[in-house]
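Co-fold these.
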Amino acid sequence: MSKFQYTPENEAKFQEYVSRYPKIDSCMLPALWLVQEQEGWVSPEAMVYVAEKLGKTPIQVYEVATFYTMFNLKPIGKYHIELCKTVSCMLCGSRELKQHIKETIGIDAGQTSEDGLFTLSEVECLGACGGAPMFALNGEYHEKLTKEKVDELIKECKNDN
Ligand code: FES
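Predicted complex below.
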């Protein structure tokens, strides 16, 4: 029995998702997404919970959760920077931005700042290639980024705390 549980609100959402699909298997992604909305990340305990709810083995849930970069497999900072590293963004300067973020916040891809504010992830194409280079900040897209724009965004985040 898993220690993780959906809140009553998320349990109701889960049941609503289940009613939308002919096979409960199809609920794997929304079920994991609900976990992440609730906790900020998908823990091994939560994967076991989702497996129990869907009648799957934990490894089947693990395979899905680890395939998609949108699922955080460890706790993340308050501000999650998902920097696109795919070709268009790479050619337009994503590597330089990554280095700039590293120098500014002190974190590399896959790391969280010591104050718990920022997590930097490198992800594959987010479908905004025309706005390269870009990153998503807590899911909100910021395109045609420059070091100056990155500095502004980081400053805004810090000022909100
Ligand atoms: S290559 Fe970066 S959004 Fe597509």
